[in-house]
Each structure stands twice: as structure tokens, then as C-alpha cells.
Give the backbone structure.
Amino acid sequence: MRSFNKIEENDISFFTQVCGEGNVLIGDEISEDFGRDEMTPESMRVMPEVLVTVDQANQVSRLLEYATQKRIPVTPRGQGTGLVMGSVAVHGGLMLDLSKMDGILELDRENLTLTVEPGALIMDIRAFAEAHDLFYPPMPGEQSASIGGNISTNAGGMKAVKYGVTRDYVRGLEVVLPTGEILQLGGKVAKNSSGYSLKDLIIGSEGTLAIVTKAILRLVPNPACTVSLLVPYPDALSAIRAVPILLQGKIMPVAVEFMEGDVIVAAERYLGKKFPDHSAEAYLLLSLDGRSKDDVERDYEHIATTCLHTGAIDVFISDTQERQDAIWSARGAFLEGIKAMTTEMDECDVVVPISKIVEFLEEKQALEQQSSLRIRSFAHAGDGNLHVYILKDDIDDATWEKQLHLVMSALYRKARDLGGKVSGEHGIGFMKREFLEQSAGAKAVSLMRGIKRVFDPEGILNPGKVC
Amino acid sequence: MRSFNKIEENDISFFTQVCGEGNVLIGDEISEDFGRDEMTPESMRVMPEVLVTVDQANQVSRLLEYATQKRIPVTPRGQGTGLVMGSVAVHGGLMLDLSKMDGILELDRENLTLTVEPGALIMDIRAFAEAHDLFYPPMPGEQSASIGGNISTNAGGMKAVKYGVTRDYVRGLEVVLPTGEILQLGGKVAKNSSGYSLKDLIIGSEGTLAIVTKAILRLVPNPACTVSLLVPYPDALSAIRAVPILLQGKIMPVAVEFMEGDVIVAAERYLGKKFPDHSAEAYLLLSLDGRSKDDVERDYEHIATTCLHTGAIDVFISDTQERQDAIWSARGAFLEGIKAMTTEMDECDVVVPISKIVEFLEEKQALEQQSSLRIRSFAHAGDGNLHVYILKDDIDDATWEKQLHLVMSALYRKARDLGGKVSGEHGIGFMKREFLEQSAGAKAVSLMRGIKRVFDPEGILNPGKVC
């Protein structure tokens, strides 16, 4: 591991000179929130030495150039909604708070692009687009995440089945390299074959190669009509078995979510609101959209019939905005609902081929029985991305550590054997590095490390993450 | 420039041992075709020293490992349909002919993927998918190109407006590194956030980082109905001005091609077949698809009305397969048609924001007048990707070289000023390196070179290309 320098008085003077007095916090002035993300165990919290709030690329540039010269570790931070400690300053040093760089800078109607700063929230970007009758499709469960974070992890979310992931909606990036140089990658262009795609390399690199200071997003026409179908099944496996059948037809659903009854109950409890139904063991939640009510009606009749043919108990159709909001806000609260069920937990964000979800869930069930740990899960079933949560409950620390590692290792091994990957959308961060190396192999990780050295020879940018 | 070793007798023995007697050709045994691509000027042809036909990844692996040890340059070759000398062995050495690795290996209906070898032709992949009522959308003008080449240049083609480019349809790759190691990148998964996207780095890297030996492609449902609209406009600029207006509506056309009357005439002459109309100065050719005839009819009525509002002279609708094939095969013959008009030519494959195509074409017109060179063009107008051809005709070599460089430089400079890129889909290859450096900037190119060294420390793989 590289040795970094501690931040000293004269460093703080420099940060203050660049960003202004009120934007540089040290020691106890820094809120404890900046020492963790949404899933950091108590025992692993690490505070940055200094927290600097930046509001323009030029400041980021000056700070990174300085940090490279002085060998000070730098951790970029958006909303801190990650789950793998990607935005925690595990080596201390300087944390760059980008949340104030939250401008929505330009809507370009002719090129159908939206230029934003990295701190802009997903919910605000989506609302802004919709107010202009346009659509930004990526919809992670955590709508209060920042676009910078979503780009850094190539977040996918619920609408990836039809619309794809964040990568598919990033036309261009402005990034600051660890040397302080500012690069424009891509642009308002729909095609590009002009050398290696540095833009695609930055997307998903979790802030370890460069810091995104601007993004040009692609928008699409806003679908006029959306309908959701909540479909109860007698058990988890019969619900999951229906998924590839639903996706083989001519109708491409926007979303196909899988959820278990007790996770719904947990979300109801967390929100204090009722879901339309929670009596079944398992559900699929589908969403369809289209240009007219007639189109979507025809589609959902067809999909509903297919659901019933695949063993569904019933099909509840939600075609008003209000009812859909109720369902999807409950869906958005699953993570919080599960967190509220237990004392501490860790998650596994694997993605597997759609045809292999059943096998993966069978393994999960077997592990739950063997380990005596509670395991809860929900899944973006339409794209094979599962979120599996292992709950600590009241188990003692030593047993928990041991059992957790056994279960996690078994889950990741199973995913790899099924042709899956360690992370579908949450990234590797600090927590999943061991599993990345096992899954991707030593050679792929060594190429990643080589690329890291090309961008960041001093290793100052988000050290200890990914590879 | 690095110094390479010439191939000697014992090297040839090794190649023969790995690939078999009939698969190793030397000197005059090698057809002259392997010394050029579709646009290599006579004066720039370079023959490889040895041409080896491979038929499995394991052979590629052994040859690359050997070539790295012996410092022998290796040029991968598919169908040789490129336009920038990406598949020409500019340093001599070993050429790997991958065209016999053309298997379509597996259709996976549950995961909607098609696994193919790199030599499989785009036309065969598309036909195979359609025979199974599925659809592989990327449709470059050159349908006899290989998928390996399309992946290497991130080819886009005509249907990118609605469906995106090759990158969007590559789920996984098997690649052989210059060291001989074989890596599996991505897979049958729809999301991935597991370290840097090496897969996306390989896509568009023009065979300079690794050789693709297998690809897992994503397929989508086959649209039941497709219609094409040929729309004459009084002049080029009024046709182009209509494009952003057409794209701002709720209907996303599959393709929006721009063409000039005399390019159509040239294609007619080349094919010996008539186009439905060639009397106007300029045309848009639109394609629409959908799940039913009714849906598409409603869409094209709306689009046709918009065309007439934007100054179109008429709208010819082609709704039979036969008439559409006639139009699109003529469209596919544009490049050959223009080639047949002149003695020699060079092309410029810029991509600009859609809103800037008019300005770019105005510059092209001005340059044509100033330079006294004939310039012909057509464009994937719906995605801003223009193909501009500068014709030598009967100009003497010295004047041609000088004028060509002036015009090319001016075109690329204009594209850059408009926020465009050097290449939309044909790549950089050997011919456009100067313009890549000018456009992307020294720092971006130096990062690319750093990445190149990580993958290929001895620089043996497709040397002299891209960066």
C-alpha cells in the first residue's frame, strides 16, 4: 500500500484560498455522516481529515493538482447513498463534497441533451425532464442519489429492462484528472469512434480515475402513458420462472421487479402506508409504457394473460398516477424497510443471466437454511440484478463476521459459476474488492491497476477502492 | 517508432505448427487484397510478410504470445471493408485472417443473446436473428463486414437513431491479449458495475489492445412491421433543417438518412437499377417500425405531415418489402457509386451534434467552391454522422495531396469547432491519426497511449494505428 501524507496547516490554508473560508471543515466540524455511506458498519467508519465543498471544476482542478504533488488522498463525495463504501475516505485525507455543484445547466432540445453538474439529484433531473415533456430513464431505487454517483457506478435501476443503464444515457463528460487537467470526453454526439472510449472507461470507475464535473445526458421522448401491474405468485421460484417467458414476447416491459411478501410488509411498516396486496409469498411488479392509453392497454392485457398462464394468482392493474406512485414509493423503500428489520446488514448486488436467477435463489435459500442467518432479497428480475441482504439481527460479532463471510463467498461463487458478475449497479467500492478479484480474475484486475496508474500515477484519487 | 523483427524461417515453422500447412501463406502466395482495405490509395499498399488463417482462440493465443516474445507486428483482419487502413499491415509482419472464424455459435432465447465468432458477417447475423423472429439492430452500409470489425470500430450504421450503435449490443467478449492470455469480459448479463469496463475499452479500439475471438450479442424482438419514406426536398439545407424537428416529436424514427440527388444517380449507375425518384436536389430517407401495421401507419402519417410542414416536395411511402429492399440496397451502394465516379478519393467520417449538420454542410459547400475539388456526401442525418468524400478525378498527384490535406484539415477543424468528433463509426486506423490528436487533444491521446502500453507493452498488436 502506498504511503500518503497527512494534511497540515499550510495545506488547509491552500484549500481555504481555493474554496473560501466557510467551505473548508476540519476535525469535529465535519458531520459524522461523512464518515460512512448507507451501509457502513459502525466499526468501519472513517472520517476524512478535511472536508472541502467545491462549486466549480476549476477548484477541483487546483485541489487535485495540489493533492498529487503533496501525495494527499482525495475522496470525491456526492450524496453518500452508496452501499460499498465507495465514498468513504478509508485513507483519511481530503474529501471533496460535490453536492453543491448541483446545477441543471442546459436543456438542448435540438440535440435532446441535458447538461448537468455532478451533484444534481436523480429525482431533480427526472422531474426537470418531465416538466419539458422529456424523459431521463435511469431510475435507481435511491432517487436522492446524485448523477455523479450514478455515473461512477453505472447505476441501472428499475427501468433498465427496456431503457438500459446510466452508461446508455451519458453522451459526454467533463472530468478532472488527478494531475488537475480538465478533459472533455464525448459530447452532444450520438456516435463516436474516435480512439479509445475514455468516457466509457470513466463511467463505472467509482471516482478512482478522474472526478466528473459535468455530464451531458441523453433524453428521450416522454412516454404518454404508463401502467403498472402487481402480480402475486404462490412462491418465489414460480414468479422468477415466469420472467424469461414474459421477456420473450414482442412487448418489452419497462421494468420487471421481483419481491417477496415479507419485504413488502417491512416496507409498509417503514413507510406507514399500505401496499395494494401483501398476502402472497412472492410478486412480480411490472411496468409498461407507450404513446397512448390504447397501446398500453393492449400490451397489459397481453402481459396479464401471460402472467396467468405462468401461474400467477391474480393481476392487479394500477393505471392511475396515484396508485402507481404508492406502489413504486413502497418499492423504493425496500432497502430502508429491510434495514429497519435488523441491527446491521451487508448486501450482495450480483447480476446473473436472467435464465439463472432461479438457480441463484435456490442457492440463497439453501444458504439461509445452512447458516441460520436471515437473508432477505428483492430483484430487478428483468435484468438479472439481485439485491440480497444478509441480516445480523442479534448474533454476536465474531459469529456474524465468520458466517457473513461464508455466506457472501458462497453467493459470489454461485454467481460466478452461473456466468454472473459481482455487482450489477452498486459497484465494488472498498467492501467488494476481494470478490471482484475472485470473479474477474487476476489478469483483468491487473489490467485495471495498470489503467489506474496511467490516470493516477501517485494513486491519490479515491485510494483503496475497486482494484 | 519501435523497431520490430522481420519474420524468419523458424517463425514460419512455428506458425505452421500452430495453424497447419495450408493456413500459412508467404510472399507472392498472399493475394494483393490483403495489402489494402476499401479506401487504400495505390501508393500506400503494404503487404504482410506472412498471412495466417486461424480458426480458434487457442491459435490466436499461441501466435500472440510468440509474437510478443519475438517482437513481430501482428495485424488482425476480418473482411477488410474498413476505410482508414485499420486492417492493413503498415509495419509488415504477421496478418491474422479471422474470416474463417465465422461461426454463429449459440442462440440463447431465455437471455436473448447470440454468441458469434468474430468473422461472422453482419448480414448473416441479421438474417439468422430474423429467421428466429429476433433482431440485431446495427446496420452499417457495408453488410458484408464482419462483426469483429464492427466491434473494433463501434460501427453505428443507419438504425442508430432509434436503436443505438454496436456498443449497445455487445454483452460480452472473449479476447486474446498480446501476451496470449484469454479473457472473458462481460457476459450474458444486462447490467455490470464490476470494476472498469474493459469490454467497453476493447469496443472501438480497432484491434490495438486485444483480438476479439468471441462476442455475446444482445438481440431484441423483431419489429413486425417496417415502412420507409423517401422525402424529396428542394435543396440540401432545407432537408437537413427538418431533421431536428422530426426528432423532437414523440415518434422515434429508426433511421433518418440524408442524400443528394447526384449520389443517388451514381448509385443507380453502379447498381444498374432505378431508385423511385432522383429528380430532387436532396432527400431524406426515413424508416419507421412497430408492432403492427396500424401503429406504423399512424406514425408515418404523422411524420409525413411534419415533412411537408418543413418544406418537403412530396413523400413517397414504401410499405412493401420489395420496394424497401430496392431503396435500401441503393442506399447501401452509395459508397461504391461514388467510388465509381472518380479515380481515387478520401473520406471524412465526422459526427457532429444534429443541430450543427447545417453549418457543417455549409462549410463543405464553401470548401468545394474554394478548392475546385469535387466533394460528395451522404449522412446518417438522424445521428449527425456524415460521410464526406473528396474526389481526385484527373487532378495531378502533387496538387491532389496538397488540396486534399487542406480540405480535410478544414473539415475536421470545423467539426471540432461545432463540438463534433473525427469519426462517428469508421475509426481512426492509420489514416486519421493526425486528426485524432488535433481533435481529442494531446492529453487524451497520451492517456490512450498509456492504456495501449498496459495491454500491449511490446506494441506488437496492430502497430501504427489509432494512437
